[in-house]
Amino acid sequence: MPGEALQDLADYIAEKLGDAIFSHGFEKDELTIIADREKIQSVLQFLRDDKECKFQLLMDVCGVDYPDRVRPEDGGRFEVVYNLLSMRHNHRVRVKIGADEDTLVPSAIGVYPSANWFEREVFDMYGVYFDGHPDLRRILTDYGFEGHPQRKDFPLTGYVELRYDEELKRVVYEPVKLQQDFRVFDNLSPWEAMTDVQLP
Question: Residue 185's pLDDT is what?
Answer without folding.
Answer: 56
